[in-house]
Amino acid sequence: MSTVTDTFIAPPCHDQIEILYQDDHLALINKPAGLLSLSGKNPQNLDSVHHRLVQIFPGCTLVHRLDFGTSGLMVVARNKAANAALCRQFSERTVGKVYSALLCGHLADNEGVIDAAIAKDPALFPLMSICALHGKPARSRYRVVERFYREAEGGISLPLTRVQLIPETGRTHQLRIHSRQLGHPILGCDLYGGRLLPGTEQTPRLMLHASELDFVHPISGERIAARHAAPF
């Protein structure tokens, strides 16, 4: 088994975590793009959602993660009971998740499903790959919100599609690699083709935002429907 060395050093993130809701059991936050969810093994990657939040909520734990480049809604457990109950909801896939994204080009269909197994490939790290033979099942749905053009550098008129992405499974990089599989990578995605089209090279961030999170409060049993609009 080949060992994989992660050489990624995160640039400093000056944006703050926005705390949208808190009680004794959990906190609901808006994660900025460009911030790791968990601190890395490299001491230069100490800054993260968890590192910042334990200063405010000692003993808090993450029950799910967002990619470094993804912004949006995360729920954080403030004690062991809340952690166990929330983790169970995520593992049983009863948590509703919707992401907002800008995809390169204009999608032909207004909605659809991407069903393509995803595998880790140590030789390509940190890239994941579509692999029917060795991959784990992965399924995402998409809905078109609007098709439009955006003026890019050099007077280029860039065709973009705003979509809602709904992951039915939770594989690493799932929405990013599934969007590429669709032929329309997420704008600003450096790993899966979102900076290859003319006019996309200088995109300031990955245009992917966790905009909806539906779950049951681990203690009160109340249904929580969190919403946070994409900043792009």
UniProtKB/TrEMBL annotation:
GO molecular function terms attached to this record: isomerase activity
Assigned protein family: Belongs to the pseudouridine synthase RluA family.
Protein keywords: Isomerase
InterPro entries, sorted: PsdUridine_synth_cat_dom_sf, PsdUridine_synth_RluA-like_CS, PsdUridine_synth_RsuA/RluA, RluA_PseudoU_synthase
Keyword Cell membrane: no
Name of the protein described by the UniProt record: RluA family pseudouridine synthase
The UniProt record lists the keyword Isomerase: yes
UniProt-listed PANTHER family: MITOCHONDRIAL RNA PSEUDOURIDINE SYNTHASE (PTHR21600), RNA PSEUDOURIDYLATE SYNTHASE DOMAIN-CONTAINING PROTEIN 1 (PTHR21600:SF87)
Domain Pseudouridine synthase RsuA/RluA-like: 25-179
